[in-house]
Design brief:
There is one protein chain. With 142 residues, this protein is an alpha/beta fold. Helix content is 48%, strand content 12%.
């Protein structure tokens, strides 16, 4: 019985955290690094938060690299693409260049002072990076 309670809790938590709070503007796309380093994980968390809050639609870098038509089309049709890389390797940026996806703003977390391999990720850090990312976006349509 306890096992089912855990499953129900996890499902409800997952749905609660994946459902956008606001209508997502499909003209603004966020694409992030999801690399194995802590800064790559943070970049991914920022993109997911922006999508969940309705700030931008998230498109997976891996989907674009895998030539998924829907991911490429969403990125190419966007009015604005924000790209978030974790470190100065700029893997996501290189992927977009290789696929000829236009990037309107690029945020690299190590440029904000985060150090690869030594970046804690409490809520305050996530909020700080989300704020930096949102400042790069165009004004929201009303």
């Amino acid at each position: 019985m306890v096992g089912w309670a855990i499953v129900v809790f996890l499902l409800s938590f997952s749905l609660m955290n994946s459902t956008p709070k606001k209508q997502v503007d499909p003209s603004i796309i966020v694409i992030s690094c999801s690399g194995p380093a802590d800064v790559g994980g943070l970049a991914d968390r920022v993109a997911r938060r922006l999508a969940r809050e309705g700030v931008a639609q998230m498109v997976g870098c891996t989907g674009i690299n895998a030539e998924m038509a829907s991911a490429i089309q969403a990125a190419q049709n966007a009015d604005f693409v924000l790209l978030i890389d974790g470190c100065s390797n700029n893997c996501a940026k290189k992927c977009m260049e290789n696929k000829k996806i236009p990037v309107h703003a690029h945020l690299c977390l190590t440029d904000l002072g985060f150090v690869k391999g030594r970046t804690p990720q409490p809520e305050e850090v996530l909020a700080r990076v989300c704020n930096a990312a949102e400042r790069l976006l165009p004004a929201r349509k009303q």
